[in-house]
Amino acid sequence: MEVENSTVKTHFFLLGFSDHPELQCSLCCAVFFFFIYSVTLMGNLGVILLITASPPLHTPVYFFLHILSFVDACCFSVIATKLFVGLISDKKTISYNGCSAQLHFFCCLVDTESFILTVMAYDWCIAICNLLLYTIVMSKRICCQLAIGTFLGDTMNSVIHTTNTFHLSFCSSEMNHFFYDICPLFSLSCTNTYIHDVVLVVFAILEEALCLLTVLFSYNLIIAGILKTGPADGRKGFCTCASHLTVVSIYHGTLIFIYLHPSAGHSLDIDKVTSVFSMLIIPMLNPLIYNLRNRDVKNVFRKMISRKFLS
């Protein structure tokens, strides 16, 4: 038993898609995921560069969109590294310390995205309902404080989850997933995970309740404010907020499905499919969802392109 525990604590082994050999060994699958990663990285970095280089977009709403794009790019990169290596080679192991580091950064980035989406809803609420006070309520100082506070709070939350997970004793090193997450790690434990499950679920409920209640309250005020305006302004307001509400609904829906359940007796195969969608597809779609129907972004982009060709 001592040898087994010692072996387990030096490395973990990702099974990935080994239960689907046609995916595991397929070069096409690796190319597909590389395409998604490339689109995600180029899309989010493009948004970051566009907002940074365009003074008209130096407003609170684009400040938080800038942060969201950065978080999406980082979160995908944390997952993609091991995913690509596992698809194109037989090297599917990671050290114990490497696994804990990856889990910490992953949890921190996921939580940060949740709260940034919440802050964006609050920002739009102020912009629509209290436009005259908008520059005061959402000053540069307050925006920075919200961003820093979100990051520090989520870092603390991630430390708690990582510590809670790696206090377990692991009897197996083979993880039925394509990246290192809390629930798959719980399934490897040879000790009772009841207390650890309770900690995970309680923190998840508190976070989801805080985020979703804030978003719902903000959108309740937003809808009331839009209904007071004329049809044209109301239509524009609904279009502006619809993209954000779509992302929030999909993102939080998948998080609730994955984390708000006991780890025992839950199918990790279902979690793998859900994780592919929430952690790989959503970061790729975010730049498209937020920018394709955004008139300001499209106008700035056209001006930059025309300047480039005319110079």
Automatic annotation (TrEMBL):
- Gene3D superfamilies per the UniProt record, alphabetical: Rhodopsin 7-helix transmembrane proteins
Give GO cellular component annotations, separated by semicolons.
Answer: plasma membrane
Q: Does the keyword Heme apply?
A: no
User: In what way does this protein cross or attach to the membrane?
Assistant: Multi-pass membrane protein
Identify the keywords attached in UniProt to this record, alphabetized.
G-protein coupled receptor, Membrane, Receptor, Transducer, Transmembrane, Transmembrane helix
Q: What is this protein called?
A: LOW QUALITY PROTEIN: olfactory receptor 5I1-like
Identify the main location: membrane
Q: Which species is the source of this protein? A: Odocoileus virginianus (White-tailed deer)
Keyword hit for Glycosyltransferase: no
